[in-house]
Amino acid sequence: MKEVIHTPVPDIEEEEYHINMGPQHPSTHGVLRLVVSLQGEIVKSLKPHCGYIHRGIEKMCEKDTYPQIIHLTDRMDYLSAHINNHAVCLLVENALQVEVPERVKYIRTIIDELTRIQSHQLWWACYGMDLGGLTCFFYGLRDREHILDIFEESFGSRLLHSYYTPGGLMQDIHPNFQKRVKEFIKYFQKKIKDYDRILTGNVIMTERTRGIGILSKEDAINYAVTGPSGRASGFSCDVRKHYPYSVYDKVEFREVLFTEGDTLHRYYARMEEMRESMKIIEQLIDNIPEGEYSAKMKAVLKLPAGEYYQRVETARGELGAYCISDGNKTPFRLKFRSPNFSNLGVLDKISREHKIADLVAIGASLDFVIPDIDR
Amino acid sequence: MGVTGKYFFSPGQIVTEQYPENRKTLKMAERFKGEVIMPHDENNQHRCTGCGICELNCPNGSIEIISTRIETPEGKKVRIIDKHIYHLSMCTFCGLCIKTCPSDSLAWGQEFEHAVFDRSKLTKVLNQPGSSIIKGIE
Ligand code: SF4
Ligand code: SF4
User: Fold this and answer.
1) Which of B4, B29, B59 minimises the CB distance to A71?
2) Rounded to the nearest 10 degrees, how much is the dihedral formed by the CA atoms of A235, A236, A240, A242?
3) What is the pLDDT of residues B34-83, one digit of tens each?
């Protein structure tokens, strides 16, 4: 007689199992590894594992002089390269109490906003793609190309510019700069309507993301989620408004705030930010004052011994640069408070009890740039 | 859908770059950062004094200056450049060497197709063989 062997069948409903999302998953937009604990299709918890693209930028900064540090900051959040440069430049200028020319402030503000637009364009393109609409990807990249062309003409490169230096700019803007930026604004005001028609008004997208990944205002503050992701939850954290630098105190713009805090409203927040950025550029582009493109700086910059902190608003939130100087030409310690790192912290909290497919949507709406997390 | 249809029926708005078919006509922006070069004039003369400031300012050691001291006919001891070695493979295109060179002897080149089979080809000597410094540059 044959003996019947009973092997215990695991109860699929009960059992939790882990899958690795990344480090080479297309929707993590880089080498982020998420260990997702699943029950069926439901995300029970999630652990991000960082460090796959850790290059030791903060340590490298300790051996570099202040002008040399600039090119490293480009490589943190490469989509906000100019704004990262801005943080270190402002830190050095404030520490040395250098007054940069008015022209530089105007140009920097315009370029920062252009950077924000191109970063959000790429985000829009990828967001659409992550949700299954490949068309968005092409339209987004097509329009981003216009800004990159302007960048290439003025600064010589498309992604990593190293254009700001402590005290000013590497070189003056290209004579065509103003004309081309104005052309771009006109062009993009038309195209952003296309964006709305393709994705914002798309009922599949809105229904798929409404009420998904809700981040409450308390959590946004507790986890220090800044940038459009935090503002979609009603956390007023725009550094440009609260601690204005360059000429942000002279321009009028609205801090985009929503209260819902779900994936859909993080989407709306970024779309609105693009419009606000265009408004800022329009106010400044015709009024760039004449003058020098750089203040007179010493050949070797030595910050007085002490501690310095400077924050700026990148396309993803608040970037802080904290520097301890011992009076030498290199910093004793330079720490970056990067927006993506804090924003990543909240991913576990807001994606619990959602489907794994929603995790992709939530991740896309938080808009990570992985080199900024690992530095 | 409507938007897709609009572009589908107006192929005039297609923006694809036909690279590499357009290599002959492709012109990069004038400030394009392709590589660091040292412009020479028609007499094979450059402006580099061999001072080493670019080497000092380069954040990642992409530049090595090998210079020798010679005595001029007037009896002055001067430094002349022997080799200005540029490691393209390490360069991060930050532009500090070009900005800080006191005699403006470096510039950006427009070449961007840097792929080679042997990485030793990426180490370049910027001053051409037999070149000398333009008179009057200290
Ligand atoms: S290239 Fe310029 S900075 Fe470098 S050694 Fe020559 S003169 Fe000096
Ligand atoms: S561009 Fe920057 S990294 Fe490249 S050689 Fe010059 S100083 Fe060095």
Assistant:
1) B59
2) -130
3) 888 888 888 888 888 888 888 888 988 888 888 888 777 777 777 778 88
Omega before A23 cis (within 30°)? yes
Q: How far from A148 is each of A60, A141, A190, CA to CA, in Å?
A: 28, 10, 18
**Which residues in chain A are closer than 8 Å to B93, comparing Cβ atoms?**
156-157, 160, 162
- Kindly report the protein residue whose alpha carbon is nearest to atom 2 of ligand 2: B94
Give the integer Cα–Cα distance in Å for A250 and A105: 11
Cβ-based neighbours of B85, under 8 Å, separated by 6 or more: B63, B64, B65, B66, B123, B124, B125, B126
What residues of chain A lie within 8 A of the CB of B94, using their CB? 68, 70-71, 162
Cα B118 from Cα A248, distance rounded (Å): 50
The residues near B63 (Cβ < 8 Å, ≥ 6 apart) are B36, B54, B55, B84, B85, B86, B87, B97
- pTM (2 d.p.): 0.86
> Nearest-CA distance from B108 to chain A in Å?
9
How far does the centroid of ligand 2 lie from the alpha carbon of residue B64, in Å?
11
Please check whether residue A71 touches B, CB under 8 A: yes
CB-CB under 8 Å, A64 with B94? no
For chain A, which domains are there? Answer: 16-372 (1.10.645.10)
* DSSP helix, strand, coil percent of chain B (3-state; round to 5): 15, 25, 60
Q: Which domains does chain B have, with CATH numbers?
A: 28-133 (3.30.70.3270)
Nearest Cα residue in chain B from A75: B92
List of chain A residues with pLDDT < 50 = none
